[in-house]
Fold PLP-dependent aminotransferase family protein.
Amino acid sequence: MLYRELANRLQALISDEVYRPGTALPGVRRLSAQHKVSVSTAVNACQELERRGLLEARPRSGYFVRPPQAKRKPPRVRTVSKSPRPVTGQERVLQLIQSANDRNMVNLGTAIPAPDFLPMHAIEKAFRQVWREQRRRCIGYEFPPGAPELRTHIARHLAGLQCNVSPDQVLITNSCQESIAIALKQITQPGDIVVLESPTYYGLLQVVESLGLKALEIPTDPQEGISLGALELALESWPIAACVLVPSFSNPLGTCLSDECKQTLLGLLEKFNVPLVEDDIYGELPFAGPRPRPIKSWDKKGLVYYCSSSSKTLAAGLRVGWMVPGKNMPRAEYLQFINTVCVNTPSQLAMVQILEKSRYERMMRSARSAHAASVARMVDTVTQLFPTDTRLSRPTGGFVLWAELPGKVNTAELIEPALAAGVSFAPGSLFSASGKFSNCMRLNCAVQWDARVERGLKTLAKLVGKSGKK
Ligand SMILES: Cc1ncc(COP(=O)(O)O)c(C=O)c1O
């Protein structure tokens, strides 16, 4: 889509301050001549930037660059319980997850990108082609380790990220969550201690709960990432069986560890011989700059179990994930087999088509700028609507925003009235094994922005305001 390309180019010029906040963009005729596109493409590009919250249309004056909103303070780092604890009560998440099945719900609760953020056309074409050309294969099982062509593509993709992995070392799974469960089954026994960021993605806590492991939560700075000092102390103090981390654009904070921190972290784990389960599901989605390197790319000793999926980049409904399960590939294949027998065949083959067409990089570029804009818009709107002392994360990739609310707000108490009003969010306590973060909430920004979303956010702001005054 030409207009999106032009919108992306103009967005880059806005972020480089070639067009400064408050100033007018050249008129659409001028833009069309400058960029050698039709006037209607220029109009569409400006409208797209309006939707992304970067431009405002002023009647009879044209398009103006919107001033950035005042930045809110970032959330505070929490001290968390100093000893490992079993994870309990994660079933609470079901109510939230099930709310996403309701197509009328304004989904700010689950981290699922709306169709606008996904390459719908390419997916449709891939499925049609696969059905046309490989019908017989589609209706059969594709047993572990998964479709060979897909494993080759994943290995190639990983090679581009400086991970030296052959197709034989790649296992196709149903999801990143399944990859993580298989990795932890390979390296832990019930009762073992596993290190997690705090706050961390609730799905990781659920896997820890289901395997009867204990969680040791490490304080995590919303901008710097996991505290390496606290991690080192934990490694010295406890017999830790594994670390499960999201080093590139964590969920819910959106933090990306620097390359230097990633290498220091790996050095620490090597020193204590502790395996890392690396969840890289958001790694493809930086807002700017190059795609970050996974920790796996520095792993010379085979300590890193790499896990990812297509859920955030292509479509969650594909249910295709992958992992590099380390030394014991046959055990991982067997665990995948007894879990679900195998992975959906048409989805695996469709994904091969999408990767083969080499448009994948372009799709990712478009997704990245759309997510950057959607997060910026959410920050703007929450800043306008929520109490003034609300603190907000500053994600540098992915598409979720974490808000720390002032006063005595307990967001777990707001979920029922919010769902009843048709809007979901994720209560903060879901992201901790020790019930911390009860005054926080996570918002999914990858929504199709319309009046319903604005109304939903107004409803949340009202609920927060009322609860904070109690
Ligand atoms: C950090 C993280 N890991 C894993 C998952 C689960 O992804 P999948 O659908 O591939 O299981 C999610 C989904 O929200 C996530 O945010």
In short: The mean pLDDT is 92. The chain has three domains: 2-65, 85-117+362-469, 121-360.
